[in-house]
Structures are given as C-alpha cells and as structure tokens.
Amino acid sequence: MAEEEKKQERKKRRTATEAASSIGAMVKAAIGGTVKAKEEGKKLAYSFIVCSYDEIIRAMDVVPVWTENYAGVCGAKRDAERFLERAESQSFSRSLCTYALCGLGFDQWREELGEMPPDAPWGGQARPDFMLSSGQILCDPRNKWYQAAQQYMPDVPIYDVGLPYPLYEDDIEVADVQDYYIKYIVAELRGLVKFLEEQTGKKMDYDRLSELVDLGERTWNLIWETYELRRAVPTPMGTGDAMNTMVPMVFMMGTQEAYDFYLDLNKELKDKIARKEGVVEDEKYRLLWGGGLPSWFALTDFNYFNSKGAVFPVETTYRMIEPIYRLNMPDTNDPIERLAWRWLGYWTYWYDKAKKRPGSEPDVERLIQYIEDYQIDGVVMHEAFSCRTWHLGLIWQLNQLRKIYKPIPVLILGQDGKKGEEKRELPSLILESDIIDISTYSEVDTRNRIDAFIETLEQVRKNKADRR
Amino acid sequence: MSDYFAGIDIGSTMTKVVIMNDGIISSIIGPTGPEQRRLANRVMENALNQAGLPFDAITYLVATGYGRINVPFADKQVTEISCHAKGVAHLFPECKTIIDIGGQDSKGITIDHGRPTDFVMNDKCAAGTGRFLEVIAEALEITIEACGGMALKSKEPAQISNICTVFAEQEVVARLAEGVPLNDLVAGILESLASRISRMVKRLKVANEVVITGGGAKNAGLVKALSDKLGYATLVPPEPLITGAVGAALLGKDIVQKATKNSLPLERKKRSLEEIEIL
C-alpha cells in the first residue's frame, strides 16, 4: 500500500455502520457530479439544505450545489482556513457564519482565477447558473450569503424563497393562522417554479413532481422508522454516524437513491439489533446530542465518547423529519400544497405537546421526549460560535429543561419491592467551538470536559445506587 | 504501618501536591509554567520532604488538573471536577455548589455527597478567569493580592463595560486617566469578573452551601462580589488552592479501600520521581 494511502486510512473515522462509512464516497461523487454536470451543460443551482423544495429542483432536472455541504467538507478535511482568510480579506467579519465565509472565500477565489482554486477539496464547488436563497425566519445567511456572493458573480441571478412558519406562543393555535402561512408558502413555491421554468426553458411536469413528493414522503417515514430503531439497548448507531447518514436526508431528498439508502440502513440496524451488536461493546451511558451543528473537523470526538462507553442513540441535529402521518396534512393532490403543508407540519410538530407542559417550549419538549424514549443519561450540546441562529438558544433550552423536567420526582421500585422516590438527575455538557473554524478548537480542553462529564455520569449513577 | 495517599493537581498556573493519611500531613504549592510543568516532580519531592516520607511510602497517588495525563508516577488520573467535589465535601460536608476560579479557567460544580452531579466550565475566555485579574492588575501597576482589600474600600465601583480582557485593560487605563479612583476601578473589575462567573454558574442549580476555591477565592473583594451577584453566602477553605489535590488523595484512599475490601489487585506505577515528559 502506498504511504499516502496508509495515511488516508489512518485518518478515516471509525463508524459503527456500513451505511455511514459509505457516505464519504457518496458526497465526493455528488460534488464531483456537479462539476461534471456543469461540463455537460446542465443547470446548476446554489441551494440551502432543509429548503422544502428539493423535489421541485429534482423535477426540473436542476442540479443542486449544496453550499453548506461544501463548506462542511472543507472543514472536515481541515482545509477551510484558506477560504475563511480570503473572505476576511474581502472585509467579511470572522464572526459571521463560517459556512458562508468559507463559501464566499471560495467563490471569490474561483471567480478571480476563472478556474477552481488550487487543490480544491474534492474537485471544488461548481459555478452556479442561479442561486436559490431560502429564508427560514431566523437564519440570516440563508438570505444574505448569496447576495454577498453575487458581487463575485453579478451575472448569476438569485431567487429568494421565503419559507416562514408561526413562532411558538402558548396562547396561539397554529390552526388559527396556518391557512395564511400555507397561502404564502404556496405562492413562494409557485414563484420558484416560474423562476426555474424561465431559467431552464422547460415547463414543470406536475405528474413527475407528484411522484417525487410521494417518494419524499415515503423517505421521511422510512427515516423516522429507521432512526427509531436506535432506541434499542445497546444502540446500533450513534450520532457520530448520524452526522454521515444525514447526507441523503438533507442533500438527496426526493431521489430513489436516498430512499434505498435508508432501506439498507434500516436492514443493517435490524440485523445489528438481532445480533445485540452495539456501537460499543460495553454500553455504559446513553447520551442525547441535544443540539448544535458538530465541529466537522473533530468528529472523532464521538469516538472519544465511545471509548468511554458513552453512546448517542439520538440527536436533534439533522433529524429534519417527522412521520408524515402525524403532521395532520389535509388531503390534496397538488404537490406544491403538499410541500407547503409538510414544511409547516414539520416546524410546528412539537407545539401541541409543549402547550401541555407549563413552561415548556417545542425545542425543550423534543428534548424531553427523546430523553424518555431513548433512556438518556445525559445531554451534550455544542455551541458553535459562528451560528447565532441556532446555537443562541441552546443554553436557554438546557435551563428550561432543568426547570421543568429535572426537578420532577420519579417513583421507583427498589429491589426490596419498596416504593421510593428520587429526583431525576441529568448532567449536561456544553462543548464550545465552531462548525468549520478550527482555530476555535482545543482537543485537550474538549477532551478534558468529556472526561469530567463521564466521571459525573458515573458519580450520579453511584449516588442513585447508594440511595436505593 | 500507615497508608499514605497523595494527590497532585497540575493546573494551568500552579501545581499543588497534598499527602494525607488520616489528615493532611503535607501540602506544597508551586508554580506551573512551560518549564515548571516538566519539573512538577520537584513539587512532589518537596511535599515528600515536608512529610518526611520516602516516595515508596505513598500507597496510592492520583493526578488531576490539566497536566494530569502525563504524570509518569501517578497511579490514576481523575479530572479536577471529581477531585474538587471530593476535596471540598471533605472540608464542607454540607456543600452543594463549588465555584473554582483558577488561573486560566473557572468552573461551577454541583455536588451531592461529595460526588459531582453537574458542572459548567469556562476554558475559552480569559475574561472569566484569574488571568483577567492578572492583566488588569499589571495595567494598574498593583499586585493581585492588594486588589481584594482595595475593592472592599470602594463606595462606588466603576462600570467596566468591555467583556474582552484586552479591551477591558484599555478601558481601565482610560478610566484611570479620567480620574476614577483606583479603589473604584478595582472594585469595578472584580464586579465584572464576578458577573461573568456568576452568569456561568447560574446555568446550574445553585444551592447552599456554596464554596469558592482556586486562586480567586483568596481575593476577598471577588468573593464578596460573587456572593452578592449569586445571592448566596459563600465559604472559602483555609487553603483554597489545594482542594483538588486533597480530593485526588481522598479518591486514591477510596480506591485502595475498595480494592482491599473486595480483594482486587491494585495497579500502581513505579515510585520514581522522573521529569514529566511534555507531549
């Protein structure tokens, strides 16, 4: 084996599932595919994940270029710094979203050279024919990133899709306002179809779109069922792997390839469960990854947790689906309306549950549900400094969790048959770094925190045992 | 023959060693730095000399703190969270919350019967650690030791608005030039530091008794400011720097007792005071 190959092999992160280990090649092929598609004259669109219009793009034979994905790949390959620095030299602040900074640095360089930057990871990010912004209320880069990129590509038009949803308030019923939202989202999506028709010179085939939406909905259900298999003890798959297996969910929705991937994963997990094969040999602690994008350059931290007997059977990050049959979607044959209802249903899925628990919020309710369903011993979150949108609320969620969940006494039945009472104790750990900016990361400090957290879990368990 | 247990806590700025049998028989505090960390074995040697013991007399030795990983003569490594919990509970059995203010990090720990139940840690920003105080004291040309007393004399602590150590340093110098009294400036700095630490600690379920440890606990002005911010009376150990090392020694004692009770083998390292290899 060549020295270089040996080096590559050493670097590869250990995964628990075959499915997760196949993802690297899949992403590499997808990124390479966009470059090839460009050469073949196909239409390419810069796009954001969780955009709700995956099937529309696919039905129009537009090739999506997932810009967040490419930035993540640069981060995972520890090769984002030169693009971040280039963006900084263009007067973008380092405190902005580092996905956006990486993408902007890359675009500026590619446009300046008229070709891919030297040694661009996995062949580089292809130049788009148009860009599809996708506002999601809170994430400003989803509106502003491509506007900023346009200064390097002034000939590339943008279509900005507004995708709102009602923010949670415990005295407002979604049903009272949902028709207004659906009307707005449908209008935005129809506008997108019109824009794509103009850009591609093709008419939308609505029968094909319906088929893809059907496929997308079946994929949602399949992912949900598959991920629920991870409730098993020992769990057959952890969050480290889920950070890979999310790829077909967020980058390939509405494709047969995505559906087939989860079919294979489903089978693999069932086989592992039947063999009682877990992520680790001796599963000691079950943890919830309670939010935050991961540090793509430090996914081996999940393996470090595993080396201590800790596994993550569940995560809120990149679990961007709910079972379709629980979303209360009305019967409609219009695929655009179905996409709109699916979007609204997903974002408001936890609202009703939250209303039933005083002081709760949808995000907190989701944590509680997972804690109970997956028999969780502790919660880990990652505060990525450059993602204000999502990460700002994480500590607040933990605080609420402590207030409304932890102090609740739990009745237990001791070995002697006597009823007792104990308080739920759920230690938490907040990791601090970034999604791709490696200069924010210290392996020593991170692992010191993980060590302390594992010891805390052990001590909590001892305390419980002493009380029984 | 008595059993002796040692704890060595290699922090970012200080190395602490404690040797115990039924009580503390020796404790040494020495500086940690790029060179000193390598020579932490000498701090161990000093502690043994103080106790009048050969190294072989140590039944079990636990290392803790940031430098715990590469101590060749330690039988076990335990994080400072568990060690502080154990050490503080030994001194204050009713303690429920620990705040440790170290040279380059600060931590909040909730405990139950000497065992940690949750914790928060700041190792990212100097503004919530002893380093903040060091930088400001240097800018004001006063000693850290003097800060506490000066702050307690202030009747109107100055407002320090910057949350970054570097910019706070500039702000303090500018305020001094404006004529703000030194005592008020120092009090303002301590309030600012206390505010950052209390915000972090309040992520936990703070409960009485609250014990402050680490170098920050030696600063009466900071302790008062922190008590005020938290709304809790706080306690300080007689020597707040050694609680981690005390806990480490006690955890070693637990390990030995458990092994003896269950007739389990005990893994021990060679008792040789080698220099610590920096990885």
Strand order of the largest sheet of chain A: 2-1-3-4
Runs of chain A in which pLDDT lies below 50 for 5 or more consecutive residues are 1-10
Shape of chain B: elongated
Helix content of chain A: 40-55%
Share of residues in strands of chain A: 5-15%
| Uncertain regions spanning at least 5 consecutive residues of chain B | none
Give the name of the CATH superfamily of the largest domain in chain B.
Answer: ATPase, nucleotide binding domain
Counted beta strands of chain A:
10
Chains forming the largest contact: A-B, 26 and 20 residues
The largest sheet of chain B, given as strand count, sense and whether it forms a barrel, is: 5 strands, mixed
Count of separate DSSP helical elements of chain B: 9
Query: Which H/E pattern describes the elements of chain B?
Result: EEEHHEEHEEEHHHHEHEH
The N- and C-terminal alpha carbons of chain A lie at a distance of 56 Å
Domains of chain B, number:
2
Radius of gyration of chain A: 23 Å
How big is the Rg of chain B? Answer: 20 Å
CATH class of one domain in chain A: Alpha Beta
Oligomer: heterodimer
Throw out a few tags for this protein:
heterodimer, A: 468 residues, alpha/beta, Rossmann fold, four-stranded parallel beta sheet, globular, disordered N terminus, B: 279 residues, Nucleotidyltransferase, domain 5, 2 domains
Give a verbal description of the structure.
The complex is a heterodimer of chains A (468) and B (279). With 468 residues, chain A is of the alpha/beta class. In chain A, 51% of the residues lie in helices and 11% in strands. Chain A contains 19 helices and ten strands. Chain A is globular and about 75 Å long. Chain A starts with a helix and ends with a helix. The model of chain A is unreliable at 1-10 (pLDDT under 50). Chain B has 279 residues and is an alpha/beta fold. In chain B, α3 (80-91) packs across α9 (243-261), α5 (144-152) crosses α7 (182-201) and α7 crosses α8. The interface between A and B is medium-sized, with 26 and 20 residues.
